[in-house]
Amino acid sequence: MKGLFKSKPRTPADVVRQTRDLLIYVDINWNTREAKREDKMQELSKNIRELKSILYGNSEAEPVSEACVQLTQEFFQGNTLRLLIVCLPKLNLEARKDATQVVANLQRQQVHSRLISSDYLEANKDLLDLLVSGYENMDIALHYGAMLRECIRHQSIARYVLESEHMKKFFNYIQLPNFDIASDASATFKELLTRHKSTVAEFLSKNYDWFFNEFNSKLLESPNYITRRQAIKLLGDMLLERSNSAVMMHYVSSKDNLMILMNLLRESSKNIQIEAFHVFKLFAANKNKPQEIISILVTNRNKLLRLLADFKTDKEDDQFEADKSQVIKEIAAL
User: Fold this and answer.
1) d(CA 101, CA 52)
2) How far apart are CA 66 and CA 55, in angstroms?
3) What phi and psi, each to the nearest 5 degrees, are found at residue 114?
4) What whole-number distance in Å separates Cα of residue 209 and Cα of residue 175?
Protein backbone atom coordinates (compact mmCIF):
# COMPACT_ATOMS: atom_id res chain seq x y z
CA MET A 1 0.00 0.00 0.00
CA LYS A 2 2.82 2.38 0.85
CA GLY A 3 3.86 2.69 -2.78
CA LEU A 4 0.47 4.12 -3.74
CA PHE A 5 1.01 7.30 -1.75
CA LYS A 6 4.49 8.29 -2.92
CA SER A 7 4.65 12.02 -3.68
CA LYS A 8 5.26 12.94 -7.28
CA PRO A 9 8.79 14.32 -7.86
CA ARG A 10 8.79 18.10 -8.30
CA THR A 11 9.47 19.51 -11.75
CA PRO A 12 11.90 22.43 -12.16
CA ALA A 13 8.89 24.72 -12.71
CA ASP A 14 7.41 23.46 -9.40
CA VAL A 15 10.63 24.35 -7.58
CA VAL A 16 10.53 27.87 -9.06
CA ARG A 17 6.85 28.33 -8.12
CA GLN A 18 7.48 27.16 -4.57
CA THR A 19 10.52 29.43 -4.28
CA ARG A 20 8.41 32.34 -5.50
CA ASP A 21 5.67 31.64 -2.93
CA LEU A 22 8.25 31.45 -0.15
CA LEU A 23 9.90 34.71 -1.26
CA ILE A 24 6.51 36.45 -1.22
CA TYR A 25 5.83 35.04 2.26
CA VAL A 26 9.22 36.17 3.58
CA ASP A 27 8.84 39.62 2.04
CA ILE A 28 5.39 40.21 3.55
CA ASN A 29 5.98 38.60 6.96
CA TRP A 30 9.51 39.79 7.61
CA ASN A 31 8.67 41.69 10.79
CA THR A 32 6.71 38.90 12.45
CA ARG A 33 8.65 37.02 15.11
CA GLU A 34 7.59 33.49 14.66
CA ALA A 35 9.03 30.02 14.43
CA LYS A 36 6.99 29.57 11.26
CA ARG A 37 9.04 32.22 9.50
CA GLU A 38 12.25 30.41 10.45
CA ASP A 39 10.88 27.19 8.96
CA LYS A 40 9.95 29.05 5.79
CA MET A 41 13.46 30.57 5.58
CA GLN A 42 15.03 27.11 5.84
CA GLU A 43 12.69 25.79 3.18
CA LEU A 44 13.53 28.77 0.96
CA SER A 45 17.28 28.18 1.35
CA LYS A 46 16.76 24.53 0.41
CA ASN A 47 14.78 25.51 -2.69
CA ILE A 48 17.38 28.04 -3.85
CA ARG A 49 20.05 25.35 -3.46
CA GLU A 50 17.91 23.01 -5.56
CA LEU A 51 17.56 25.66 -8.29
CA LYS A 52 21.35 25.97 -8.31
CA SER A 53 21.72 22.20 -8.54
CA ILE A 54 19.35 22.02 -11.56
CA LEU A 55 21.25 24.79 -13.39
CA TYR A 56 24.80 23.71 -12.57
CA GLY A 57 24.40 19.97 -11.99
CA ASN A 58 26.01 18.32 -8.97
CA SER A 59 28.66 15.74 -8.11
CA GLU A 60 26.46 12.95 -9.46
CA ALA A 61 24.96 14.47 -12.61
CA GLU A 62 25.47 17.12 -15.27
CA PRO A 63 22.69 19.72 -15.78
CA VAL A 64 19.85 18.59 -18.09
CA SER A 65 19.14 21.20 -20.76
CA GLU A 66 15.37 20.53 -20.83
CA ALA A 67 15.16 21.07 -17.06
CA CYS A 68 17.18 24.31 -17.36
CA VAL A 69 14.81 25.62 -20.07
CA GLN A 70 11.74 24.80 -17.94
CA LEU A 71 13.27 26.49 -14.92
CA THR A 72 14.31 29.59 -16.91
CA GLN A 73 10.88 30.06 -18.51
CA GLU A 74 9.04 29.81 -15.21
CA PHE A 75 11.57 32.05 -13.47
CA PHE A 76 11.08 34.98 -15.84
CA GLN A 77 7.37 34.52 -16.43
CA GLY A 78 6.60 34.87 -12.76
CA ASN A 79 8.79 37.79 -11.71
CA THR A 80 10.91 35.51 -9.52
CA LEU A 81 14.09 37.40 -10.44
CA ARG A 82 12.69 40.62 -8.97
CA LEU A 83 11.64 38.87 -5.77
CA LEU A 84 14.99 37.13 -5.37
CA ILE A 85 16.96 40.37 -5.82
CA VAL A 86 14.67 42.40 -3.53
CA CYS A 87 14.67 39.73 -0.80
CA LEU A 88 18.39 38.96 -0.98
CA PRO A 89 19.28 41.07 2.12
CA LYS A 90 16.87 38.92 4.16
CA LEU A 91 18.54 35.62 3.24
CA ASN A 92 21.37 33.99 5.20
CA LEU A 93 24.90 34.06 3.76
CA GLU A 94 24.81 30.60 2.14
CA ALA A 95 21.43 31.29 0.50
CA ARG A 96 22.77 34.64 -0.78
CA LYS A 97 25.73 32.89 -2.38
CA ASP A 98 23.45 30.29 -3.99
CA ALA A 99 21.03 32.98 -5.19
CA THR A 100 23.91 34.94 -6.74
CA GLN A 101 25.00 31.84 -8.69
CA VAL A 102 21.43 31.17 -9.84
CA VAL A 103 21.03 34.74 -11.15
CA ALA A 104 24.45 34.55 -12.86
CA ASN A 105 23.60 31.28 -14.63
CA LEU A 106 20.19 32.51 -15.79
CA GLN A 107 21.84 35.34 -17.76
CA ARG A 108 23.31 32.68 -20.08
CA GLN A 109 20.32 30.35 -20.41
CA GLN A 110 18.68 30.35 -23.84
CA VAL A 111 15.04 29.51 -24.53
CA HIS A 112 14.30 28.94 -28.25
CA SER A 113 17.70 30.51 -29.03
CA ARG A 114 16.84 33.71 -27.11
CA LEU A 115 18.39 35.08 -23.93
CA ILE A 116 15.09 35.81 -22.24
CA SER A 117 16.87 37.30 -19.23
CA SER A 118 17.93 40.21 -21.46
CA ASP A 119 14.29 40.86 -22.49
CA TYR A 120 13.19 40.69 -18.84
CA LEU A 121 15.86 43.16 -17.67
CA GLU A 122 15.00 45.51 -20.56
CA ALA A 123 11.48 45.69 -19.17
CA ASN A 124 12.62 45.93 -15.52
CA LYS A 125 15.55 48.34 -15.59
CA ASP A 126 14.88 49.54 -12.06
CA LEU A 127 16.43 46.25 -10.90
CA LEU A 128 19.76 47.50 -12.25
CA ASP A 129 19.39 50.67 -10.19
CA LEU A 130 18.93 48.41 -7.16
CA LEU A 131 21.98 46.27 -8.01
CA VAL A 132 24.28 49.28 -8.52
CA SER A 133 23.20 50.93 -5.27
CA GLY A 134 24.04 47.65 -3.51
CA TYR A 135 27.62 48.95 -3.29
CA GLU A 136 26.36 51.22 -0.53
CA ASN A 137 25.39 48.25 1.67
CA MET A 138 28.35 46.23 2.97
CA ASP A 139 26.30 43.09 3.60
CA ILE A 140 25.11 42.62 0.04
CA ALA A 141 27.62 44.63 -2.04
CA LEU A 142 29.60 41.62 -3.28
CA HIS A 143 26.48 39.59 -4.13
CA TYR A 144 24.78 42.43 -5.99
CA GLY A 145 28.10 43.31 -7.67
CA ALA A 146 28.53 39.75 -9.02
CA MET A 147 24.91 39.76 -10.29
CA LEU A 148 25.40 43.15 -11.94
CA ARG A 149 28.51 41.98 -13.84
CA GLU A 150 26.54 39.05 -15.24
CA CYS A 151 23.60 41.29 -16.24
CA ILE A 152 25.87 43.68 -18.18
CA ARG A 153 26.93 40.81 -20.42
CA HIS A 154 23.82 41.95 -22.32
CA GLN A 155 24.79 44.95 -24.44
CA SER A 156 21.51 46.84 -24.02
CA ILE A 157 21.76 46.48 -20.23
CA ALA A 158 25.37 47.70 -20.18
CA ARG A 159 24.26 50.69 -22.27
CA TYR A 160 21.54 51.49 -19.74
CA VAL A 161 24.05 51.51 -16.84
CA LEU A 162 26.62 53.52 -18.83
CA GLU A 163 24.06 56.17 -19.75
CA SER A 164 22.54 56.37 -16.27
CA GLU A 165 23.54 58.67 -13.43
CA HIS A 166 25.06 55.58 -11.75
CA MET A 167 28.28 55.89 -13.75
CA LYS A 168 29.26 58.92 -11.67
CA LYS A 169 28.81 56.91 -8.46
CA PHE A 170 31.44 54.36 -9.51
CA PHE A 171 34.20 56.94 -9.00
CA ASN A 172 33.25 56.95 -5.31
CA TYR A 173 32.57 53.23 -5.00
CA ILE A 174 36.07 52.44 -6.32
CA GLN A 175 37.49 54.47 -3.41
CA LEU A 176 35.40 52.91 -0.64
CA PRO A 177 37.51 52.06 2.45
CA ASN A 178 36.45 48.39 2.33
CA PHE A 179 39.05 46.80 0.03
CA ASP A 180 36.86 43.91 -1.19
CA ILE A 181 33.95 46.16 -2.11
CA ALA A 182 36.21 48.76 -3.77
CA SER A 183 37.86 45.96 -5.83
CA ASP A 184 34.48 44.56 -6.82
CA ALA A 185 33.25 48.01 -7.93
CA SER A 186 36.48 48.42 -9.88
CA ALA A 187 35.93 45.07 -11.66
CA THR A 188 32.38 46.13 -12.64
CA PHE A 189 33.61 49.55 -13.81
CA LYS A 190 36.26 47.89 -16.00
CA GLU A 191 33.69 45.47 -17.46
CA LEU A 192 31.36 48.37 -18.32
CA LEU A 193 34.18 50.22 -20.10
CA THR A 194 35.71 47.35 -22.06
CA ARG A 195 33.18 44.62 -22.88
CA HIS A 196 30.89 46.11 -25.56
CA LYS A 197 33.23 48.03 -27.85
CA SER A 198 30.77 50.07 -29.94
CA THR A 199 28.64 51.04 -26.92
CA VAL A 200 31.74 52.11 -24.97
CA ALA A 201 33.07 54.20 -27.88
CA GLU A 202 29.71 55.98 -28.14
CA PHE A 203 29.55 56.56 -24.37
CA LEU A 204 33.11 57.97 -24.17
CA SER A 205 32.56 60.29 -27.15
CA LYS A 206 29.32 61.69 -25.75
CA ASN A 207 30.55 62.01 -22.16
CA TYR A 208 34.21 62.82 -22.76
CA ASP A 209 34.53 65.99 -20.65
CA TRP A 210 32.94 64.97 -17.35
CA PHE A 211 34.13 61.36 -17.58
CA PHE A 212 37.84 62.07 -18.05
CA ASN A 213 37.70 64.96 -15.62
CA GLU A 214 36.50 62.51 -12.94
CA PHE A 215 38.81 59.74 -14.14
CA ASN A 216 41.90 61.95 -13.93
CA SER A 217 41.16 63.74 -10.68
CA LYS A 218 39.62 60.90 -8.66
CA LEU A 219 41.44 57.84 -9.99
CA LEU A 220 44.74 58.72 -11.71
CA GLU A 221 45.55 61.31 -9.03
CA SER A 222 44.14 59.29 -6.13
CA PRO A 223 46.32 59.04 -3.02
CA ASN A 224 45.64 55.28 -3.05
CA TYR A 225 48.28 53.22 -4.86
CA ILE A 226 45.90 50.39 -5.88
CA THR A 227 43.39 52.89 -7.31
CA ARG A 228 46.11 54.62 -9.37
CA ARG A 229 47.51 51.33 -10.61
CA GLN A 230 44.14 49.94 -11.72
CA ALA A 231 43.15 53.26 -13.29
CA ILE A 232 46.27 53.68 -15.42
CA LYS A 233 45.96 50.07 -16.63
CA LEU A 234 42.30 50.63 -17.56
CA LEU A 235 43.13 53.94 -19.28
CA GLY A 236 45.67 52.12 -21.47
CA ASP A 237 43.15 49.39 -22.31
CA MET A 238 40.55 51.98 -23.31
CA LEU A 239 42.82 54.25 -25.37
CA LEU A 240 44.55 51.40 -27.21
CA GLU A 241 41.21 49.85 -28.24
CA ARG A 242 40.80 50.52 -31.97
CA SER A 243 37.12 51.46 -31.66
CA ASN A 244 38.13 54.29 -29.26
CA SER A 245 40.67 55.88 -31.65
CA ALA A 246 38.79 59.22 -31.83
CA VAL A 247 38.67 59.40 -28.02
CA MET A 248 42.36 58.52 -27.86
CA MET A 249 43.28 61.38 -30.22
CA HIS A 250 41.23 63.76 -28.08
CA TYR A 251 42.94 62.56 -24.88
CA VAL A 252 46.51 62.85 -26.20
CA SER A 253 45.93 66.41 -27.40
CA SER A 254 45.52 67.75 -23.87
CA LYS A 255 48.45 69.25 -21.97
CA ASP A 256 46.73 68.57 -18.62
CA ASN A 257 46.53 64.88 -19.46
CA LEU A 258 50.19 64.87 -20.49
CA MET A 259 51.24 66.44 -17.15
CA ILE A 260 49.37 63.74 -15.23
CA LEU A 261 51.02 61.00 -17.30
CA MET A 262 54.49 62.50 -16.80
CA ASN A 263 53.92 62.48 -13.04
CA LEU A 264 52.88 58.82 -13.20
CA LEU A 265 56.06 58.03 -15.16
CA ARG A 266 58.03 59.30 -12.14
CA GLU A 267 56.20 57.04 -9.65
CA SER A 268 58.35 54.78 -7.50
CA SER A 269 56.19 51.80 -8.50
CA LYS A 270 57.55 49.96 -11.55
CA ASN A 271 54.05 48.64 -12.36
CA ILE A 272 52.54 52.13 -12.53
CA GLN A 273 55.53 53.43 -14.51
CA ILE A 274 55.16 50.73 -17.17
CA GLU A 275 51.39 51.19 -17.54
CA ALA A 276 51.91 54.98 -17.69
CA PHE A 277 54.53 54.50 -20.42
CA HIS A 278 51.97 52.64 -22.58
CA VAL A 279 49.76 55.75 -22.48
CA PHE A 280 52.63 58.27 -22.65
CA LYS A 281 53.90 56.70 -25.90
CA LEU A 282 50.60 57.71 -27.54
CA PHE A 283 51.35 61.39 -26.81
CA ALA A 284 54.85 61.00 -28.27
CA ALA A 285 53.67 59.08 -31.35
CA ASN A 286 50.91 61.58 -32.24
CA LYS A 287 51.89 63.03 -35.64
CA ASN A 288 49.66 66.09 -35.10
CA LYS A 289 50.84 67.20 -31.66
CA PRO A 290 49.36 70.55 -30.60
CA GLN A 291 51.98 73.24 -29.98
CA GLU A 292 51.43 73.19 -26.20
CA ILE A 293 52.21 69.45 -26.08
CA ILE A 294 55.41 70.01 -28.07
CA SER A 295 56.42 72.84 -25.71
CA ILE A 296 56.03 70.65 -22.61
CA LEU A 297 57.96 67.78 -24.18
CA VAL A 298 60.77 70.11 -25.30
CA THR A 299 60.97 71.81 -21.87
CA ASN A 300 61.24 68.40 -20.17
CA ARG A 301 63.22 66.69 -22.92
CA ASN A 302 66.44 66.03 -20.97
CA LYS A 303 64.62 64.70 -17.91
CA LEU A 304 62.42 62.46 -20.06
CA LEU A 305 65.35 61.08 -22.07
CA ARG A 306 67.28 60.29 -18.87
CA LEU A 307 64.21 58.62 -17.33
CA LEU A 308 63.54 56.54 -20.45
CA ALA A 309 67.18 55.52 -20.85
CA ASP A 310 67.11 53.89 -17.38
CA PHE A 311 63.64 52.44 -17.91
CA LYS A 312 63.55 48.62 -17.94
CA THR A 313 60.96 45.89 -17.45
CA ASP A 314 61.66 43.00 -15.08
CA LYS A 315 61.47 40.46 -17.93
CA GLU A 316 62.94 40.88 -21.38
CA ASP A 317 60.30 42.43 -23.61
CA ASP A 318 61.25 43.14 -27.22
CA GLN A 319 58.05 45.05 -27.97
CA PHE A 320 58.57 47.31 -24.95
CA GLU A 321 62.18 48.01 -25.97
CA ALA A 322 61.09 48.82 -29.54
CA ASP A 323 58.37 51.19 -28.25
CA LYS A 324 60.85 52.84 -25.91
CA SER A 325 63.41 53.41 -28.70
CA GLN A 326 60.69 54.94 -30.86
CA VAL A 327 59.57 57.31 -28.07
CA ILE A 328 63.16 58.37 -27.36
CA LYS A 329 63.63 59.05 -31.08
CA GLU A 330 60.42 61.13 -31.26
CA ILE A 331 61.34 63.24 -28.22
CA ALA A 332 64.98 63.74 -29.26
CA ALA A 333 63.87 64.92 -32.70
CA LEU A 334 61.50 67.63 -31.39
Assistant:
1) 7
2) 10
3) -120, 145
4) 21
Q: Largest alpha-carbon pair distance within the chain? A: 97
Nearest partner of 103 among 117, 114, 89, 116, judged by Cα: 117
pLDDT tens track for 61-115: 898 999 999 999 999 998 899 999 999 999 999 999 999 999 999 999 999 889 9
Of 123, 215, 185, the C-alpha closest to 160 is 123
Triad 260, 261, 264: Cα angle to 5°: 90
Answer left, alpha or beta for residue 9, where phi above 0 means left and psi between -120 and 50 means alpha: beta
The CA distance from 60 to 129, in Å, is 38
Task: Return phi, psi of residue 150, to 5°.
Answer: -70, -40
Q: Which residues contact 204 (CB under 8 A, 6 or more apart)?
A: 193, 211, 238, 244, 247
Contacts 24+ apart (CB under 8 A), 117-122: 117/72, 117/76, 117/81, 117/151, 117/154, 118/154, 118/156, 118/157, 119/76, 120/76, 120/81, 121/151, 121/154, 121/157, 122/156, 122/157
Note the pLDDT tens digit of each residue in 109-144: 999 889 999 999 999 999 999 999 999 999 999 999
